[in-house]
Amino acid sequence: MDEELRTVTERLRAEAGGSKEYERLVATGDLDELAEVLVSPGQPLWTRELAAVRLGVAGDRRAFEALVLLLNHRDAPRCAAAAYALARLGDPRTARAAAALATNELRVAYALHPVRLLTELRAPESAPALITTLRRRLAPHDPFGKIALACVEGLGALGDPRARPVLTAARAHPRLAAAASAALARLPE
């Protein structure tokens, strides 16, 4: 178990409050048993998250829908866990879903993890979604500086020349200037 998965399971252990169900779900190697948790009614959120993350890390696409819902959750640790599992899932729908979440202005407060996931995926949808999201964050008095910074850093990592205009505009924003200059330096000429 790597450090990120250990962090998720420890957080969920605390939520489970000593539940035997937690111990069972952590110990099982039966992917069908984990998938059953995702469709069983009346399950607490921690059980669904644990099952979805374990399935996602195992590459079982039955976790896709649950992980996308968690990626759009209001609790940042759940979003981070879902992004971690989605990056390992290998489902071709992941980039489209992350792009839709990153560019949804009604849910922009929760776009940080979808933006980071798009950067990690390096999919065809990644740069256009980050460009769109960053362009919107450059409006005067936009309160989502962390998301704007994640977009700038992501566009630098992706190295897509289509990002040049929006990164150039981002240099005019004091909170983004240094990162935008660094990102521009990473773009091919």
Label this structure with key terms.
189 residues, Leucine-rich Repeat Variant, elongated, ARM-like
Q: How would you portray this structure in words?
A:
This is Adenylosuccinate lyase. This protein is mainly α. The chain folds into two domains: 1-91, Leucine-rich Repeat Variant (Alpha Horseshoe), CATH 1.25.10; 92-189. Helix content is 68%, strand content 0%. It is built from twelve helices and no strands. It has helices at residues 3-16, 20-27, 31-39, 45-57, 64-71, 76-89, 94-102, 112-121, 126-137, 145-158, 164-170, 177-186.
Describe the secondary structure blueprint for this structure.
Blueprint: H1 3-16, H2 20-27, H3 31-39, H4 45-57, H5 64-71, H6 76-89, H7 94-102, H8 112-121, H9 126-137, H10 145-158, H11 164-170, H12 177-186
Helix pairs in contact: 1-2, 1-4, 2-4, 3-4, 4-5, 4-6, 5-6, 6-8, 7-8, 7-9, 8-9, 8-10, 9-10, 10-12, 11-12
Organism: Streptomyces formicae
Protein name: Adenylosuccinate lyase
Pfam family, one: HEAT_PBS
Structure summary:
Helix content is 68%, strand content 0%. By secondary structure, it is mainly α.
Low-confidence segments: none
Q: What's the structural domain tally?
A: 2
State the helical fraction: 55-70%
Order of helices and strands: HHHHHHHHHHHH
Q: In percent terms, what proportion of residues is strand? A: under 5%
User: In whole angstroms, how far apart are the ends?
Assistant: 41 Å
Mean pLDDT: 96
Number of helices: 12
The major β-sheet equals: none
